[in-house]
Design goal:
Layout: H1 7-28, E1 58-61, H2 64-70, E2 77-78, E3 88-94, E4 100-104, E5 107-108, E6 111-114, E7 117-120, E8 127-135, E9 139-143, H3 151-164, E10 173-187, H4 200-205, E11 209-223, E12 238-244, E13 249-258, E14 263-267
Antiparallel strand pairs: 1-8, 2-8, 3-4, 3-8, 4-5, 6-7, 9-14, 10-11, 10-13, 10-14, 11-12, 12-13
């Protein structure tokens, strides 16, 4: 359970609450909403893409397959060298798989297990075993149909709406989701140093994990159908991290069920 017994921690939580509410207000005014709606590619770490005018560059360091197949948990990115501008959106895992990385608008919502509690982590002096990120200045919101509830349905709707919006789906792209989540399965990885055998199932339970119900949440995702084993798992075209409130949690999304009234956000020109 999240630690809140210290005054300093209480002030930090209030800061995240304020930032979350401010984000909802700003995104809600970004533009009008619209109702309508394996092949594995070898990509080198750090490769950049040139998109159409409103598609941001997506960059990554490290790769999931290096973690899963080679037990390579070493640092591939050091935050002392990483510019945390207000337009940066990122997700990933810390060095040695000790926690989950989430960056929204250049602010860290990253978490780690400390003394059996999930705590928010300042990125100063930290490193990532794996991270994918993009720089987005503007977003466009689209109402998610009430029929879209499951993880798979969200994946399909994201692809459809991105195509309708003119996003080039031969390239990866970031997206966001806001609204109330009926049910969200999550984990914050805390990998044992002596375990060299990785599976997706073990990653989901090795560290704090659980199910949240009926919570307002902000979710950051990266979508690609050609980066399986790079920054998405082989069974999905999406990689999602979340921050919820209240209560204040953040981590990796393993599964979810949406409530009606959610909003999908895509990069806009």
């Amino acid at each position: 359970m999240m630690s809140s017994h210290r005054h300093k921690k209480h002030l930090l939580n209030l800061r995240y609450v304020t930032l979350f509410l401010l984000f909802i207000f700003v995104w809600a005014g970004c533009g009008s909403e619209e109702k309508d709606l394996e092949q594995h590619t070898e990509i080198q770490s750090g490769e950049r893409y040139a998109f159409s005018q409103w598609q941001p560059n997506v960059t990554y360091e490290g790769a999931l397959r290096n973690i899963m197949r080679e037990n390579n948990l070493s640092a591939h990115l050091h935050f002392e060298d990483f510019p945390l501008r207000s337009t940066i959106y990122a997700l990933g895992a810390f060095e040695d798989l000790k926690g989950e990385i989430l960056i929204l608008r250049g602010e860290s919502y990253s978490t780690r297990a400390v003394a059996d509690e999930v705590r928010f982590i300042d990125l100063e002096n930290e490193s990532a075993a794996f991270m994918v990120w993009a720089e987005v200045e503007k977003w466009q919101g689209f109402e998610v149909p009430d029929s879209v509830l499951s993880f798979t349905e969200l994946e399909n709707f994201t692809a459809l709406q991105a195509n309708n919006f003119g996003i080039d789906q031969t390239k990866p792209f970031p997206f966001g989701l806001t609204g109330t989540v009926a049910e969200l399965s999550w984990h914050v990885i805390d990998w044992p140093e002596d375990d060299t055998v990785h599976t997706h199932e073990k990653h989901m339970v090795t560290g704090p994990h659980g199910v949240l119900t009926g919570i307002p949440a902000e979710i950051l995702g990266f979508y690609s159908d050609s980066h399986h084993g790079i920054f998405t798992h082989h069974s999905s075209n999406m990689h999602l991290h979340f921050v919820s409130q209240p209560p204040l949690y953040s981590g990796h999304v393993d599964d979810l069920t949406l409530s009606p009234g959610s909003t999908l956000w895509l990069p806009a020109e």
